[in-house]
Amino acid sequence: MSHATSAPSQPKPPRPLPRILTVKTAYRLTPNMIRVTFAGPELAGLPEGREGANCKLMLPEPGESREGFVARLRDGRQPLRRTYTVRHYRPDLQEMDIDFVAHGDTGPASRWAHHAQPGDFLGFAGPGPVKVAQFEADWYLVAADPSALPVAAATLEAMPRDAKGVAIFEITDAADRQDIDAPAGIEMHWMVHPDPLNASDQQERLIRSLDWPDGRVQTCIAGESGVIRSLRAFLHQEKALARADTYISGYWKIGLVEDEHQAMKRAEG
């Protein structure tokens, strides 16, 4: 009597390793923002048109060699991961810019960027989808603190050149103002809030004071979670904006590191 035997199960293919990106330059874009430019063939094939999209950065330990870092990734011993934004991608040059808020050595990503030198490396996964994929509004509202300045700037630069609206940036120092290629019809406001670890309501006060337009409104708003919670209630409940038209996201929370903040967001659903 013969017995059918099942085919041996095939081992799962190994998960692809993240791209290992190499620093070309790192410099102070403004007093409180560090721009790191990555360059090299590892960027080949990266999706285009994803400026403003999230990516995950995997940070090596201080002094860790590239070989040791790659071996750790292969072994499944996960490095620290942080969420950042693709600011610029130049496929013809195989270059990408990522901007880091400069907190000195108080956080692992800021510490890495603060000390980054040409030839340094990290792991990269992504990018994800852009936050505003279609520009179909009569009027746009963009608001950001330093953590969200890259996504806000990239969104403004991707807008149709005849777009109209308001952009509000809350920065730590007047010298942190950046040149952004926004449409001429976007009214730009720069407000200084010198201590980001103390809550600020000046973005909300300005938004509430605006002459609200007729027609369809789309938003790109991100920043500290307490500010975002209040603005979300205003936009969805008082202004009754369609949720599909409102990208509004908490990127960090006063008093929490990223892992704690992500856990809080998951718990809130």
Automatic annotation (TrEMBL):
Domain FAD-binding FR-type, by residue range, is 16-134
Domain of life where this protein originates: Bacteria
Which InterPro entries does this chain map to?
A: FAD-bd_FR_type, FNR_nucleotide-bd, Riboflavin_synthase-like_b-brl, SIP_FAD-bd, SIP_fam, SIP_rossman_dom
Instruction: Spell out the molecular function terms from Gene Ontology.
Output: oxidoreductase activity
Similarity field:
Belongs to the SIP oxidoreductase family.
Name used for this protein in its record: Vibriobactin utilization protein ViuB
The species is Phaeobacter italicus
